[in-house]
């Protein structure tokens, strides 16, 4: 359906009603792409499964960013990557994390959830390093004017991000896999036998083909829909930086649903892994990819955050550290993260 819609709408001026329909199909294509990536990941196993899923999500995020970059001009284009990545960090580390905690601790009055603090703390530390290097450091460098990086600095950031991401994936999937497994109510690790068997090879191969179709549909429909997105933001009298929030919300919708459902099943650690893992992939893969493509796009990337954004990022990291500092979490932890997310969304509308 996504490919057919793309063929019918490519290079056409669309009325409002058709634009809404295309937006719905675009969102459905994102969900479909992630679903098929998860099937392939379940078949190939770890650590390659995590890489496939992260690469698929990164292709979607980068595709949306590039299509919006090429369809507009001005300072908003330079900062679109920063706004999207920062939005992804705020949504994952506050929204996804907060919802999974509330879902995992709200089944009975006074119940607290158990997390694997070794893995949670390691994942959050990885987010802190990546966010600081790619979003905060460019704000204070002096070799380039403003919140930009020189070519050598951007290359260093890209290489460092990839190294950190690969190291985290190997740690999570191979070297210390038990640190990231969910715990039951008694604090014991839930064994792998509770997981479903991998899908058959035929199903996995079918998902590979459908994944490619879905990714093509997402990137193409993003190009078709980009004028409507920018026009809608302008018509609502919202800052152009809110486009980055829209992209992040769209890309992270599947992870949000999966984390909430995992929390409801009592697998709170799975929701935390999804939250921090999505943030790590968003920074560790998206920024290097855009850094490599920026010369071809003839766009200078503005990565440094503003003062307000830095305050929100520091608050998020501080609350996150306190959340994962022990094995038990309560509904208060989840509520605090959701309040920080609400502050981010409100300040994005009224900066």
Automatic annotation (TrEMBL):
Q: Can you tell which superkingdom this protein's organism belongs to?
A: Bacteria
Q: Does the keyword Transmembrane helix apply?
A: yes
- Where's the Sodium/calcium exchanger membrane region domain? 16-173, 207-349
UniProt keywords, alphabetically: Membrane, Transmembrane, Transmembrane helix
Tell me if Transmembrane is a UniProt keyword of this record: yes
| Location of the protein in the cell | Membrane
GO cellular component terms?
A: plasma membrane
| Single GO molecular function | sodium:proton antiporter activity
Q: Where are the transmembrane segments?
A: 16-36, 48-69, 84-102, 122-141, 147-168, 203-222, 242-262, 274-297, 303-325, 332-350
Membrane topology term: Multi-pass membrane protein
PANTHER family tied to this protein: SODIUM-POTASSIUM/PROTON ANTIPORTER CHAA, SODIUM-POTASSIUM_PROTON ANTIPORTER CHAA
- Name of this protein: Calcium/proton antiporter
């Amino acid at each position: 359906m996504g490919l057919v819609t793309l063929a019918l709408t490519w290079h056409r001026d669309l009325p409002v009603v058709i634009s809404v329909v295309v937006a719905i199909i675009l969102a459905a294509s994102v969900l479909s792409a992630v679903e098929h990536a998860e099937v392939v990941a379940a078949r190939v196993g770890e650590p390659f499964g995590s890489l496939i899923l992260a690469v698929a999500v990164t292709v979607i995020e980068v595709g949306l960013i590039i299509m919006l970059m090429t369809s507009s001009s001005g300072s908003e284009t330079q900062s679109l990557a920063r706004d999207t990545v920062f939005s992804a960090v705020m949504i994952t580390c506050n929204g996804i994390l907060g919802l999974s905690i509330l879902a995992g601790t709200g089944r009975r009055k006074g119940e607290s959830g158990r997390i694997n603090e070794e893995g949670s703390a390691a994942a959050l530390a990885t987010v802190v390093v990546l966010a600081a290097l790619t979003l905060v450091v460019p704000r204070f460098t002096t070799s380039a004017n403003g919140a930009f990086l020189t070519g050598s600095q951007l290359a260093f950031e890209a290489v460092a991000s990839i190294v950190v991401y690969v190291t985290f994936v190997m740690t999570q999937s191979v070297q210390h896999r038990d640190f990231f497994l969910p715990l039951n109510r008694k604090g014991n690790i839930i064994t792998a036998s509770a997981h479903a068997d991998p899908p058959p090879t035929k199903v996995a191969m079918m998902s590979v083909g459908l994944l490619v179709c879905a990714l093509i549909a997402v990137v193409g429909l993003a190009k078709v829909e980009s004028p409507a997105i920018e026009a809608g933001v302008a018509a609502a009298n919202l800052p152009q930086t809110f486009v980055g929030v829209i992209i992040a919300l769209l890309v992270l919708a599947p992870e949000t649903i999966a984390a909430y459902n995992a929390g409801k099943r009592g697998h709170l650690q799975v929701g935390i892994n999804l939250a921090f893992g999505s943030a790590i992939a968003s920074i560790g893969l998206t920024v290097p990819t855009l850094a490599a493509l920026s010369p071809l796009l003839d766009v200078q990337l503005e990565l440094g955050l503003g003062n307000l954004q830095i305050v929100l990022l520091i608050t998020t990291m501080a609350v996150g550290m306190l959340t994962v500092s022990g094995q038990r979490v309560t509904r208060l932890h989840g509520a605090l993260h959701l309040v920080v997310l609400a502050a981010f969304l409100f300040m994005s509308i009224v900066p």
